[in-house]
Write a structure and sequence with these properties.
This protein is mainly α. The chain folds into 2 domains: about 180 residues, no CATH class; about 90 residues, no CATH class. It has 8 helices and no strands.
Length: about 270
């Protein structure tokens, strides 16, 4: 375990600037989202109610239900886009984290693979690095949504029970695309297990490519695509059967996870080369 944490510490030192840069960008994106939400609301009121574009209209004309409904909707949409970009950046880095070891000037992979320890520790350290990044961004976004609603409450003067409750005001709307689910089962399936499985599948695709070179490129891409395609068609088939769909998703997640970990373990132990 100490070897894994040592390798993780090394990986984190290499990406902490990127990581904190994403957190800062996410925060700024949320502040911009608040501004855009307020601006869009004022323009909407100007078009529909002929109210002048004045910042004070929030304290004189707009009611709390309107603030809660329209402004927070806008903030949620804009901030979700920023969140999606941040998480996507982390998933892209799940590819880069391996290739930078091969193509950096120091050829870090040479030192890592020749260390007197289990090679799979390298895999686990990199996996931990990416998961910490993504989970950290998800937690940060929830915190930022609270900050967004507090800022909005101060600006508009709205005073209603639960105004700063993120799950009741920003996420409990089935018509929205919620990147962070407010429902505990969906949250674990998508934001915990789904994230873990996504990174594991990407890692497996990379290791396949690294192990089989030219053929590996096709095999690695095919592995990632097949995992997505199979799950997509499975969701379509069981979309109207929520309980059955959940059971099938759990079974698929477990099978794909075990398969990916097994392939990765075998490749990094005996097949992957410098």
């Amino acid at each position: 375990m100490s070897n894994i944490l040592t390798l993780y510490n090394m990986e984190f030192k290499r990406i902490y600037k990127l990581y904190f840069g994403l957190i800062v960008t996410l925060f700024l994106g949320n502040i911009v989202s608040v501004g855009l939400g307020i601006n869009d609301t004022m323009r909407h009121m100007n078009r529909n109610q002929m109210i002048p574009l004045d910042f004070n209209i929030f304290k004189t004309y707009i009611n709390e239900d309107y603030v809660k409904g329209f402004v927070i909707d806008q903030i949620h949409v804009f901030s979700s886009i920023v969140l999606g970009i941040a998480v996507l950046s982390c998933l892209i880095y799940a590819l880069i984290i391996w290739y930078r070891d091969y193509y950096s000037r120091s050829k870090t992979i040479c030192a890592l693979l020749t260390l007197p320890q289990k090679r799979f520790n390298i895999y686990l350290a990199k996996l931990l690095t990416i998961l910490v990044m993504i989970y950290g961004i998800i937690v940060s976004q929830v915190i930022f949504w609270y900050i967004d609603t507090i800022i909005l409450k101060i600006i508009t003067g709205a005073n209603i029970d639960g105004f700063t409750n993120i799950f009741s005001n920003m996420m409990n709307n089935p018509s929205r695309l919620n990147l962070i689910s407010p429902y505990i089962i969906d949250f674990f399936m998508i934001n915990i297990f789904g994230v873990l499985l996504s990174v594991v599948v990407i890692f497996t695709g990379v290791l396949i490519e690294r192990s089989y070179k030219r053929k590996g490129i096709a095999f690695g891409i095919l592995y990632i695509l097949l995992s997505l395609i199979i799950y997509y068609f499975m969701l379509i088939k069981y979309v109207t059967y929520s309980d059955q769909g959940l059971s099938m998703s759990l079974i698929y997640f477990l099978i794909l996870f075990i398969l990916s970990i097994s392939i990765s373990y075998k490749l990094i132990k005996s097949k992957i080369t410098l």
